[in-house]
């Protein structure tokens, strides 16, 4: 029977995902069979497992930190906001329903049964489960319906560590307030709290000592360490969960890449690999001067393709993209961005608003129709274009639309479906694909950059970095950082390890 430990926080962005990821790698390095778990995640950053199930990216990375293949059991409930106060609800990796918050809570009994079944499965399979909470565990208006914070820990009878973010200010008040609210309104939850950790501290730790001692006296909780603010931290909060850069970061280089920051952008970690390339300048912008000076413009995925496409047209950004193309820019679309590049987008089931049909940007000879069935699968791909090197490219699909027409870019094998078909389209200096993760393929990414180096009279460069190797090293760096600053001896003793 496995042991368990929960990390919860005083609020959003306290660092829960980061800490669970680091601890997963710490225990995995020690040879312990450890698994991550988050009962319910709300994020537009998702990952597709080998069986086609969809989970939050954070839990996928935590699985990788644990030297495991990502599985649906690590995140049994995923909420993907769609707008209008509704979210897609994915249960065990598959689309269950689209619900408002009020309707979602009406389903809590069924959802909680699923969570319990998964916890029973995990505790029998792994030596240690590391649970992650969401937001604050002391939202007193939601305590009776909250199934992601301390309720799973109570079910497993495992200790809970409370993480406080000092960078926002008021860390002692937030830790004490969380404890007191739980003590008053859910004493059985407060009883599960074992200790606290202060995160993102800048300065002299000695200045905190008196406050920590008083907090220990007031709460009877253990102090398990202070994590300094880490400028070069290669992992950030849930919806900015990005290893090598932040969505609005700007890095100078010879080749300029501009990504359109759609209002409903999803899976923007697709572009993380470019942050590893020293010769690439990256920005997220709609500004005309940025787009007209770009070598590469990428239209990313969107949670509502028609809404974002309509907004582009209303703002005249479609015309700016055409100007950039005429000036020699390469235009790329990923998933929803790929759909936008085609001739027509059809919406017969009203899945993307009330519009039944909308003209695309017209760059590619494809038409897309949105269907209720959602395609989620990992893929292996072979390039059909000489400018796209690679026999064993990897990526994954998450989409409802099906595109037809001149699909001439990749031959793909869908792992979850066991079928081979064509994906992607290219016409002139414009191309697109449904494959998320396509830029993790090092040879393809370098070939793209080198095309523009050669156009500028610069020499082509060899592949210098492996994306997945860098990810693995980043995960180990997180573990080293946490081991240095936390009382790991006390945590190990708590777990009996």
Automatic annotation (TrEMBL):
User: Which is one GO molecular function term here?
Assistant: catalytic activity
The CobB/CobQ-like glutamine amidotransferase domain sits at: 258-443
A Pfam short name: CbiA
Q: Does the keyword Transferase apply?
A: no
Q: Where is the active site?
A: 335, 436
- Gene source species: Caldimicrobium thiodismutans
What sequence ranges are listed for the domain CobQ/CobB/MinD/ParA nucleotide binding?
5-239
| Protein name in the entry | Cobyric acid synthase
């Amino acid at each position: 029977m496995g042991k368990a430990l929960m990390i919860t926080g005083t609020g959003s962005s306290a660092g829960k995902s980061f800490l669970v990821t680091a601890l997963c790698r710490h225990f995995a390095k020690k040879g312990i069979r450890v698994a991550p778990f988050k009962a319910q995640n709300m994020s537009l950053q998702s990952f597709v497992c080998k069986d086609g199930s969809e989970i939050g990216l954070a839990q996928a990375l935590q699985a990788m930190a644990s030297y495991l293949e990502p599985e649906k059991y690590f995140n049994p409930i995923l909420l993907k906001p769609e707008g209008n106060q509704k979210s897609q609800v994915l249960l065990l990796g598959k689309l269950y329903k689209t619900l408002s918050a009020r309707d979602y809570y009406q389903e809590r009994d069924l959802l909680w049964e699923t969570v319990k079944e998964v916890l029973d499965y995990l505790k029998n399979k792994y030596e240690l489960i590391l649970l992650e909470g969401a937001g604050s565990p002391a939202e007193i208006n939601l305590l009776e319906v909250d199934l992601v914070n301390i309720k799973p820990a109570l079910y497993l009878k495992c200790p809970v560590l409370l993480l406080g973010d000092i960078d926002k200010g008021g860390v002692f008040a937030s830790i004490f307030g969380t404890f007191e609210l739980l003590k008053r309104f859910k004493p059985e939850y407060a009883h599960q709290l074992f200790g606290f950790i202060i995160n993102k501290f800048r300065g002299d730790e000695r200045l905190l000592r008196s406050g920590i001692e008083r907090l220990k006296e007031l709460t009877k909780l253990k102090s398990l360490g202070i994590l300094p603010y880490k400028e070069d931290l290669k992992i950030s909060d849930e919806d900015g969960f990005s290893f090598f850069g932040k969505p609005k970061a700007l890095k100078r280089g010879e080749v300029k890449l501009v990504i359109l920051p759609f209002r409903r952008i999803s899976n923007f970690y697709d572009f993380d690999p470019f942050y590893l390339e020293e010769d690439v300048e990256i920005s997220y912008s709609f500004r005309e001067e940025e787009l007209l000076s770009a070598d590469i413009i990428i239209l990313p995925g969107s949670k509502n393709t028609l809404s974002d496409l309509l907004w582009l047209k209303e703002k005249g950004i479609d015309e700016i993209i055409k100007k950039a193309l005429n000036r020699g820019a390469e235009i790329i679309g990923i998933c929803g961005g790929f759909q936008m590049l085609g001739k027509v987008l059809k919406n017969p089931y009203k899945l993307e608003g009330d519009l039944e049909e909308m003209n695309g940007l017209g760059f590619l000879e494809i038409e897309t129709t949105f269907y209720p069935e959602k395609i989620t699968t990992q893929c292996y791909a072979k390039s059909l274009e000489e400018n796209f090197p690679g026999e064993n490219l990897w990526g994954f699909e998450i989409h409802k639309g099906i595109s037809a027409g001149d699909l001439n870019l990749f031959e793909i094998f869908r792992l979850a479906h066991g079928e081979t078909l064509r994906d992607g389209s290219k016409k002139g200096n414009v191309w697109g694909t449904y494959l998320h993760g396509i830029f993790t393929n090092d040879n393809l990414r370098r070939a793209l950059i080198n095309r523009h180096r050669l156009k500028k009279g610069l020499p082509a460069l060899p592949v210098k970095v492996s994306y997945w190797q860098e990810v693995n090293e980043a995960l180990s760096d997180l573990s080293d950082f946490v081991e240095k600053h936390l009382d790991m001896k006390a945590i190990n003793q708590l777990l009996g390890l």
